[in-house]
Amino acid sequence: MHAHLDCLPCFVRQALDAARLATTDESLHEEIVREVMRTAAACDLSVPSPVTMGGVYRMVRERSANPDPYREVKERFNRGALQMKPALRKIIDDSYSPIETAVRLAVAGNIIDPVVNAHVDLSYVAEAVTHALDAPLPSGAVDEFLSAVQRAGTILYLGDNAGEIVFDTLLVELLPKEKITFVVKGSPVINDVTMLDAESTGMTGLVPVIDNGSDIPGTALEFCSPAFRDRFARTDLIISKGQGNFESLSDVDGNIFFLFKAKCLVMTKFLHCPEGTVFVSHTTALTPHR
What we know:
The structure is a single chain. α1 (7-22) packs antiparallel against α2, α2 (26-42) packs antiparallel against α3 and α4 runs antiparallel to α5 (98-108). The protein starts with 6 loop residues before the first helix and ends with a helix. The protein is 51% helix and 10% strand. Strands 3-2-1-4-5-6 form a six-stranded mixed sheet, with helices on both faces. α8 links the parallel β1 and β2. By secondary structure, it is an alpha/beta fold.
């Protein structure tokens, strides 16, 4: 999925948000924003936006000498989601279809994204949970997802954001764990999950966890490590969480199931859907919108 004109001001806004988290030096904030404006003016819109943003966040980290500007934000959402976990597990246990409820909650966790929504907090997450439990899904979507899981011998589960990973653990607990390897980023970028987040939320105690060798806020295979690309190519099923992973993988051939919410104008235009639409969709189901 290529970038759009609407992505350009978003690049600048995200860079300023990250710069303010990385340092209190206002003169450096201005330098970073001006450099990102030059980058945005010259960027290739045929490239997925996560690739451009990977370079932007890399520059912010280097200029500010802060290797992980979102570390405190990530820890806060991990702690908050862990506090919610017992109540979420009870919702699953009490539901008519625990696996469908766990899938819906995993998608609900995708709202934990302060990059798209700077005002997101745990009360907002609670509203997202309610919405995800009632949101319409295409007929048979969850059954198709479970059928793909059952047929697969090996599964890569591509993680997305901190906090959201706690919701992912609830789904992974109900899937055949012996098939699953969870994937995190190779180094910090925005609030995307790293190995540290997988360890602190208990994911490493459930399934093997590997990193993709990349600092792109998605899964742009050309920027991932050779070992990860080989693993990706040999895996029977990819479970892809989040909008950034969708943006970077929507044109990749493979057996991919996307679980995410459409959270911005560009995405809603691309998928011809209202903002907040819940997707549990195989690659082929989304092909007509490419």
